[in-house]
Amino acid sequence: MIVKCGDDLRQELLAYQLLLQFQAIWMQERVPLRLRPYAVVVTSSDSGLLEPVVNAEHGNVNSEEFLNAQRNFVQSCAAYCLVCYLMQVKDRHNGNILLDREGHIIHIDFGFILSCSPRNLGFENSPFKLTEEFAEVMGGVDSDMYNYFKILMLQGFLAARKNMDKCLQLVEIMQTGSQLPCFNRGASTVRAMRERFHMNLTEQQLGTLIDDLVETSMHSLTTKLYDGFQYLTNGIL
């Protein structure tokens, strides 16, 4: 376990619970999306324990291993894109996105979710972190894997919508009497999350929305600028 002091890990705990909920929903609905939630134990208002993420690296590529890793990459990338949009996860620089030996993407550090962002500037206005490099791993924007990625996002979104109340209930419970930064907009935090499920859209309209979200994220100037800022200030490539 990793011991952390001087940080309020209750937001990490909320994120962990939401990730578990989304993972359970997709397993129940038989959608092959993959998340890797890591355990969080809150011991006080400024300390706690985090489960370390192991095997966060990638090895040599050969044809069969690469195809398996590519599929794992696509399935996990689609999963985290959805949760990053629905939960409004920010501070998505490359130091907070890991890759395990099997090709799965793993997001860490959920200190900025829902209503809060670094310095509360709202600089990262992309729906989620999706770069041209990610698309290249999938085989390019004209590849079958890239199309599979968008199909998975639609299937995952539809499954999440069916179970929206389970996710919102977790947020509402944690919000009650809370002073956490992620609830700094009060009741509008839950209302905004509810709106992001787009319950008013048909399946076809939701597919169009996903295409728009993917295109917006792929060509986001603020994503490029934020990655550049992290490289200049923290040396994060």
Automatic annotation (TrEMBL):
Tagged with keyword Endoplasmic reticulum: no
Keyword Kinase appears in the UniProt entry: yes
GO CC aspect terms: cytoplasm; membrane
UniProt-listed SUPFAM superfamilies: Protein kinase-like (PK-like)
UniProt record, GO biological process: phosphatidylinositol phosphate biosynthetic process; phosphatidylinositol-mediated signaling
Domain PI3K/PI4K catalytic: 1-222
Transmembrane intervals: none
SMART domains, sorted: PI3Kc
Enzyme class: transferase
Matching PANTHER family: PHOSPHATIDYLINOSITOL 4-KINASE BETA, PHOSPHATIDYLINOSITOL KINASE
Official protein name in the record: 1-phosphatidylinositol 4-kinase
Organism: Acropora cervicornis (Staghorn coral)
